[in-house]
Amino acid sequence: MTTTTSTDELLSVRGLRKVYGSGPGATEAVRDLTFATRAGEMVCIVGPSGAGKTTLLRCIAGLLPPTSGEVTLDRHPVSGPPEGMAVVFQDYARSLFPWLTVAQNVDLPLREKGVARAERRRLVAESLDAVGLADVPNSYPWQLSGGMQQRVAIARAVAYEPRILLMDEPFAAVDAQTRADLEDLVRDLWHRLGITLLFVTHDIDEAIYLGQRVLVLSARPTVVLEDVTVDLPETRDQLTTRNDPRFHALRTHVHGLVQQAKRGEAARRAAA
Amino acid sequence: MTSLTARTAVTPARSLGSRLRHHGRRLAVLLGLPAVLAALWWIVSERAGNFFFPPLSEILAEFGPTWFDGRLGHDLLPSLGRLAAGYALALLLGVALGVLIGTRPALRAFAEPVLEFFRAIPPPVMVPILMLFLGIGTTMKVVVIVSGAVWPVLLNTVEGVRGIDGLLHDTARVYRLRPLTRLRTVVLRGASPGIVTGARQALSIAIVLMVISEMFAANNGLGFSIVQFQRGFALPEMWTGIILLGLVGLLLSLIFRAVERAVLAWYRGQRQAQRGGSR
């Protein structure tokens, strides 16, 4: 376990529990989750499918009230979407406004934040440039490929200048090559902006490649199985990092944990 | 907008001659059937010799004198004014109530059966009842139009609001969009395909009710004129009124289509993109 001093702790999740429904039909999606992240950290969350990763993320984002437990951001309890937080959802096609152009999609949250016009124009241009979409500001999202649409969603999040960015399996629906590009893009943006990044994925390699820490979740009902520190060099590269013996060791370790999580699930089912 | 047209209009440059031929063909397709029908009407009515079915030549000859000597201002304009007022009120009321009901699932479950009942009542039935309460003035006619045209707008708005993707609402919440921005940028734009469908149905209902309300009781208007001509056995004049009514309907639907193209350009593009497979 990484020990986080309470002074530079940004996000804290304590005893989080989420039960959907009530009575005999109730499902316990998350049982008891406790972890914290420091400001500026990149934390990846992996777990078997159905581990309640999305539930956890929605609770942190303030989109879903937990059944019990607490999420705090800067020691303020989260009861609705907090200020200074951006989210990139898995389903890019459904999270961009199809009636707004690419630039308008990025601009809308800034306008709401009350950013001055000139500053907005700069932020929109810079963020689109950062994700390699400087040439299509006036296109509509549906005129772009899947990978490009997810870049728009990332540009929108980046232009918003959040202190904490949540990403919910953002690259699950894009092809492998685009995915590698987008991983490097996210790493690069995180480095440059110094934001705190919480990245949910089911891909173990992706989690280790991106994160400073990897939280491995158990199967439903979910607890934190292990908080793995990724002791790889800060500068990462698709080829060298992924061929690093340490990368392989971490991968084997996390893979074992996830397998254990799945078996635990099977054992519980057999016992029931 | 520019990239949209750039994508759909990738026709290679053509010579003036072939462009003219192309437009000529389109015009021929567009006007072909109306021309044939008009010719058929002309020939059949010329030989019918029926008092109630006068020759088209006679009707057309009457058209100018009947309408262009003051009747356009005296009858057509009041009709259009009442239509515009009733239609605008129906849109406003339908969209406002539709958004209210569509965004509150509990209210929707509560209200929907009643709304379906009101929608099922044929609007002309309301005319005699509304006459009892509101007399035979302009107010009555506007209320008649609203009472019929509001339902398709309302129900389709409810459907449109309900059909907005939950993830868009989540996105709006995450980026802390204010209620008014959410209404304008998320709810109304997202529901616009439904609203437009309702508005299209409402337009034809509104035209029907405009005419019917004038036929019951009025001292001017298109419907009033047609009934007057019919009662006075001025049959060619009556037919000119019917033709004028058809032309008004056609013009309004053309205007509607132009507005729809502008408002729903994104929707058409998105659907085309989905049909063409995600790129």
Would you mind describing this structure in some detail?
The complex is a heterodimer of chains A (272) and B (279). Chain A is α/β, with parallel strands linked by helices and 272 residues long. Chain A folds into 2 domains: 178 residues, Rossmann fold, CATH 3.40.50.300; 71 residues, no CATH class. Helices cover 40% and strands 24% of the residues of chain A. The radius of gyration of chain A is 19 Å and the shape is globular. The two termini of chain A are 31 Å apart. With 279 residues, chain B is an all-alpha fold. In chain B, 83% of the residues lie in helices and 0% in strands. Chain B is built from 12 helices and no strands. The longest helix of chain B is centred in the C-terminal third of the chain and has 38 residues. Chain B starts with a helix and ends with a helix. Chains A and B meet through β6, α2 and α3 of A and α1, α8, α9 and α12 of B.
Question: What proportion strand of chain A?
Answer: 15-25%
Largest sheet of chain A: 10 strands, mixed
Low-confidence stretches of chain B: 1-11
CATH homologous superfamily assignment of the largest domain in chain A: P-loop containing nucleotide triphosphate hydrolases
Please list the strands of the largest sheet of chain A in the order they lie side by side: 5-4-1-2-10-9-3-8-7-6
Kindly state the mean pLDDT of chain A as a whole number? 88
Q: State the CATH class of the domain at 70-264 in chain B.
A: Mainly Alpha
Biggest sheet features of chain B: none
Q: CATH topology of the largest domain in chain A, anyone?
A: Rossmann fold
Along the chain, the helix and strand elements of chain A come as: EEEHEEEHHHHEHEHEEHH
Work out the largest interface and the residue count of each chain: A-B, 34 and 30 residues
Average of the residue pLDDT scores of chain B:
88
Helical fraction of chain B equals: over 70%
In CATH terms, what is the fold-level topology of the domain at 70-264 in chain B? MetI-like fold
Helix/strand order of chain B: HHHHHHHHHHHH
Percent helix among the residues of chain A?
A: 40-55%
Task: Write the CATH homologous superfamily of the domain at 70-264 in chain B.
Answer: MetI-like
